């Protein structure tokens, strides 16, 4: 059987993702490859987890996050007993840890059927079939990129928002990071291909796009244009129908004023920036091989806020890097206090085998790292609360998400993201029939799928204008609808696309698309070497 023909019976799959946004997007490609090969996604329950055992389970691993190996082997341990009871089940491991550990995964977990790396995502269906035919594990790790992932079929998880990779790999040599070794040198896509993919997403209903790259603002280095990223932001701003544009993650060393100008002057670029600090100590930054210093970092934030006063800025910070002293840590606290981050992803340093930092002297004792981590988290929690409290009383436009907050069902709220990417839980008018949180989205009882839904009831992908009434460190609450305050729903093409998909899944609308029709929202799409169509 070839990789593009269906198995003799429809086999189901599920992809489990560990790690960063790049991994999330890679998982969409893995799902697209499997569906193009004839597999079908395992049905999901109301909690979003598979409702039944899948024939194929793919684990997309991370080698950067703490305890990455522990998470992988914890997942594999759970699957071992299931596989014993499910003849024909296959387990595949891909991603950064697979690229790093290779055949060692099968040696430690011999019930794994396929191991593939970051450079050969396209091989997954072939390897699965080869493992079935040969009745043995197949391990294939390419040393360099074989096919640019964005040219592969893709099963998008969201119909209203999507990821677009503009580059893969990294040219930096940060001593704590293994990514360049696992994903290779930076490879940049051509601007026309990126813009065509953005247009394709918008044509399917998306109104928000996030540009992805390991160091997204160094885009253009491969073809020698230092201003390419700013030009790309401006060009994306001309795509008809795109309403929100984000990007992650930029490197402070490559953050230039032309990018700030493009952000401020391109209306669809959202007032939000995630830029890793890692440490506030210049001495530690040198040891990390981070080619900027604390004052340069703070200067970038000042210029961003001057151009975009409402910008919400978030960051990453590592605590306890080898050799970090109490004075170094105090410098990090000082920078955090000055930077006024809305939130920070804080990590306790742990050695990653294969990185230069793993063999540095003066590894900081774990108890010291833990104590510093607690202090940093407490400081950031206070700042986050103060920054969010400053939002109370402001009117925000919220893009409604498919995922809901834990208390949304009881509180009669729905959730989404403001323009600055803050999480907002917003109340619906008291007389409005809300969707039930115990039902899967594709359920005929969902009032959002009615033939004539209440126009005040937002669907995922719709935009709702509300006033913020309460703040917590990690979210905002907007209950203005319950007191007669601001509440307006703007129904969007994205909301229409979501409703069409869910009505089809619920059997309320026949799936009538043909080979000549555009792909249904949420279906795999294949983007070879497209160009923007004339407008």
Topology at a glance:
Layout: E1 12-17, H1 21-36, E2 40-41, E3 56-61, H2 68-84, E4 90-95, H3 96-101, H4 104-108, E5 114-116, H5 124-134, E6 138-140, E7 154-155, E8 161-165, E9 167-168, H6 179-183, E10 187-188, H7 191-203, E11 208-212, H8 228-236, E12 244-248, H9 257-265, E13 272-274, H10 282-288, H11 294-307, E14 312-319, H12 326-339, E15 343-348, H13 366-389, E16 395-400, H14 408-411, E17 413-417, E18 423-427, E19 463-467, E20 470-472, E21 475-478, E22 487-490, H15 493-505, E23 524-525
Parallel strand pairs: 1-2, 1-3, 3-4, 4-5, 5-6, 8-11, 11-12, 13-14, 14-15, 18-21
Antiparallel strand pairs: 7-23, 9-10, 16-17, 16-19, 17-18, 19-22, 20-21
Helix pairs in contact: 8-9, 9-11, 12-13
Structure description:
The chain is of the alpha/beta class and 535 residues long. Helix content is 31%, strand content 18%. It contains 15 helices and 23 strands. The strands form six sheets. Strands 20-21-18-17-16-19-22 form a seven-stranded mixed sheet. A six-stranded parallel sheet has the order 2-1-3-4-5-6, with helices on both faces. α12 packs parallel to α13 (366-389). The longest helix is centred in the C-terminal third of the chain and has 24 residues, at 366-389. Residues 1-7 and 513-535 have low confidence and may be disordered.
Radius of gyration over C-alpha positions, nearest whole angstrom: 24 Å
- Helix percentage range: 25-40%
Q: Give the biggest beta sheet.
A: 7 strands, mixed
Number of helices: 15
- End-to-end distance: 42 Å
Write down how many β-strands occur, each being a DSSP E stretch of 2 or more residues.
23
Tell me, what's the shape? globular
Mean of residue pLDDT values: 87
Q: What amount of the residues lies in strands?
A: 15-25%
Low-pLDDT sequence parts: 1-7, 513-535
Going by helix content, strand content and strand pairing, the class is alpha/beta
Placed side by side, the strands forming the largest sheet appear as: 20-21-18-17-16-19-22
